[in-house]
Automatic annotation (TrEMBL):
<dbReference type="Pfam" id="PF03551">
    <property type="entry name" value="PadR"/>
</dbReference>
<dbReference type="InterPro" id="IPR005149">
    <property type="entry name" value="Tscrpt_reg_PadR_N"/>
</dbReference>
<dbReference type="Pfam" id="PF10400">
    <property type="entry name" value="Vir_act_alpha_C"/>
</dbReference>
<feature type="domain" description="Transcription regulator PadR C-terminal">
    <location>
        <begin position="92"/>
        <end position="174"/>
    </location>
</feature>
<protein>
    <submittedName>
        <fullName>PadR family transcriptional regulator</fullName>
    </submittedName>
</protein>
<feature type="domain" description="Transcription regulator PadR N-terminal">
    <location>
        <begin position="7"/>
        <end position="80"/>
    </location>
</feature>
<dbReference type="InterPro" id="IPR036390">
    <property type="entry name" value="WH_DNA-bd_sf"/>
</dbReference>
<dbReference type="InterPro" id="IPR018309">
    <property type="entry name" value="Tscrpt_reg_PadR_C"/>
</dbReference>
<dbReference type="InterPro" id="IPR036388">
    <property type="entry name" value="WH-like_DNA-bd_sf"/>
</dbReference>
Length: 179
């Protein structure tokens, strides 16, 4: 149910075409809620049929021009309802953790290399988030909207910090000689 809400959020921030939404998902919302090009277009169609969004009128129609969508009052109301609703945390489901548990039973062949690969990926993502923070959240940006966007980014930074530290400790633990 959250993809339509992610799309409504993005469209309220800036009316966009499906292609623009896909690009924006790749650069912002996609860091914490990913969607494929096809999923976004499918949801745009559903949201339009439900009366939550509409395609903007074009002054001059040109062939191949992308539809740009905006949120209607019903879409804004749905997003406000969803934002205010209570939701329980989702249980953690991570394949790497399950694979480590399985390695305890069948052996650790190949697992260390993949842990190192994960560590590299998490370090890279952490560096990217920290760069975004420096660029987009300089001191003095104190509007509530900016603070909310910043706390979402901080969640990403904190999660990547957790994963890098956890992976470093896990690799140390795997490298320890058996007692």
């Amino acid at each position: 149910m959250s993809l339509p809400h992610a799309i409504l959020t993005a469209l309220l921030e800036k009316p966009s075409s499906g292609l623009e939404l896909t690009r924006r998902f790749d650069k912002s919302i996609g860091y914490f809620w990913s969607a494929t090009h096809q999923q976004i277009y499918r949801e745009l169609g559903k949201l339009e049929r439900e009366g939550a969004i509409r395609a903007l009128e074009r002054q001059q129609a040109t062939r191949g021009q992308k539809k740009e969508y905006e949120v209607l009052p019903a879409g804004r109301a749905e997003l406000a309802r969803w934002t205010a609703a209570s939701q329980d945390p989702k249980p953690l489901r991570d394949t790497l953790l399950l694979r480590l548990r399985a390695a305890a039973v069948v052996g650790t062949d190949g697992i260390e290399a993949d842990l190192r690969r994960h560590l590299t990926l998490h370090r890279r993502q952490l560096a990217e988030y920290e760069e975004i923070e420096k660029r987009d959240f300089p001191p003095g940006r104190d509007a509530v909207e900016d603070r909310l966007r910043h706390v979402v980014l901080r969640a990403g930074i904190d999660l990547e910090t957790f994963w890098t530290q956890w992976l470093e400790r896990t690799l140390e633990e795997l490298g320890r000689p058996d007692a």
